[in-house]
Amino acid sequence: MQHKLITFIGGGNMAQAIVFGLLNKGYPAEKITVCDPNQQKRDLFSQKRVNVSNDNMTSVQSAEVVLFAVKPQVLTDVCQPFTEKSEIDFSNKLVISIAAGISVARIQALLPTAKNIIRIMPNTPALVSQGMAGLYAPENVTDKFKYFAESLLNAVGKTCWVDNEQDMHSITAGSGSSPAYFFLFMEAMQQALVEMNIDKSTARLLVQQSALGAAQMVKENPNVSISQLRENVTSKGGTTAAALAIFNQQNLQEMVRSAMSACVQRSQEMEKDL
Ligand SMILES: NC(=O)C1=CN([C@@H]2O[C@H](COP(=O)(O)OP(=O)(O)OC[C@H]3O[C@@H](n4cnc5c(N)ncnc54)[C@H](OP(=O)(O)O)[C@@H]3O)[C@@H](O)[C@H]2O)C=CC1
Ligand SMILES: O=C(O)[C@@H]1CCC=N1
User: Is 14 annotated as ligand-binding?
Assistant: First the structure.
């Protein structure tokens, strides 16, 4: 992949996952700059030879790609200085936003000179090269920028494009937020095992290895439905059937549907917080 000069605005959880994931894949540290007001966060990056700054203006000026990795709620304040004195011309830069729920139209309004704006919804497993990211680009964005954005995220995991921007809300429920659902499930399993007298670290090993194994089974058997994989574990009248009966009785499927709908609904509301 091409190694463009890329500036991250915001060096928090998601920026760390992407930047450290990219470094692991050989993206040159000297081509990346991370801007964050917090010295401790900047230190995390400078320890890996990534350029750091608390001067967004200067760092954006020299960038070919600007990736906004700040909380959606602060995006307006973050963008204002770039346009206030018409100081930064974004027309030749690729602008990427990973902010949940914030539309291209809104980013365009915040950065009027920008011509190429791409939205990406990544997730933190990018840190370990197992990320999943959804991408959306309006029709005017050039193929070379779309290709760059896709290859950037492909370097740290898998990607999919959506044609309809509204679908980015659902993508958030399936990529950005979804590792947290699995973490919650794993936490609950670990806790249950501890209550059954298994020590905490063995409980963690049992949970992590089973989760990893299950995910790997899904990945390596693309022609077998996930339901079939579940059924293969479930002996008639056996232990798994007893466990699954409780999940079904308490309507796990409906709980998951409601949780993911709540995620979508929150994403649809986020723009109003700007
Ligand atoms: N976390 C995740 O799993 C995912 C997050 N996202 C999106 O990524 C974005 C960032 O989320 P996340 O990394 O979790 O948030 P974090 O709060 O961890 O990171 C945001 C960082 O931006 C910094 N910041 C605040 N103001 C500025 C500024 N003016 N200039 C530069 N940096 C600034 C914050 O500093 P300080 O803390 O001092 O305010 C903080 O370090 C959000 O828009 C979110 O929707 C998307 C997918 C997944
Ligand atoms: O919780 C959030 O709003 C962000 C977006 C997706 C994951 N974290």
Answer: yes
